[in-house]
Amino acid sequence: MPRWVSGGMINFPLPIITFGLALVAAVLVARLELGKVVGRWFFVAFFVLVAVGSFLVGLRFGYGIEGLIPIQRSLPFLAGPLLYLGFVSFTEGGTHMARRTAAHLGFAVALMVVPSVLFKQFFGWEALIGVSYLIYLVALFWMWRKGPNHVTRAPIEQAEALRRWMLWAVLFLLAFFVMDGAIAISFALRRVEDAVTLISYGSVVMFGLILAIIVAVPRFAARGGQSQTAVENPSDETGLAATADAFLGETQLYLDTELTVDRLAKRLHVPARALSAAINQSKGMNVSQYVNDHRLAHAAQMLVATRDSVSVVMEQSGFLTRSNFYREFQRKYGQSPASYRKSQSIAGVSPAPEGR
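Predicted structure:
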């Protein structure tokens, strides 16, 4: 008979319920259309990991099976790397991604197989797991701060949603960190009943998080299914150039100083050569000049609409050097930025108030 813990706390079938929900989440994520990126399989592996971990917790505290404790306690080393690699795969690929995968998962596995005899108490092991959670939640938060334009390998319509999912991942790791830390301290102080209570309530939190994911995944899938391919026919140079115009206008990706033709082509899901040819044929310029034209239009608008200095306008328009900005501005408008601002003022276009 299972001995689900009770008495002042939630009964313990919750880990088994969490096990089932995590498997459902894994199946739903596996069916998502996320382009040609392997990221979803890292996410699937993460939810399978959560399912297995919950199942082992249920066996331990529900049936008194403690022989699997080393496995149960070592699995969390994989949680952070799986989530991190899942999102990184939407920012880079090829050999760089392969190296990252080997490094992060290899190190996690190495930590997992460290004999437990090296630690007199599991608390030492828990401390390492806590450090792992912190490292990866900080890494994910840093990735989130870079904005949707950093998610270059994701379908355009899903980039912002994936970025929101990064915050969900941070929340997951933060929940793991707090729960596992509190449980480890309780065990270290030999307060087993408190530890079991924390595990029980922790299962409630995990239950809620996974349930929220299960509800959100179909909406994410529907959003992707309703959106159209960015470019229906890459060979249509006029249509491709128009799509690039609309995309840059909507996302202001041209403000990214590291924008390249390859990155822009990836966001439009077309070959870089096709995009370059389309811009050259339709606009009569190369991609670098084309992107600079968008930046210059942005700068011209700022010069008229704000009282910001020319240096600030330059920086906020995606230019790295003053000489390049002045040269390109002179090419497009036939005068310096300061002269342009003055001429627009004389023409009756008033700038916005200071600070706007």
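Summary: Residues 223 and 342 are 46 Å apart (CA to CA).
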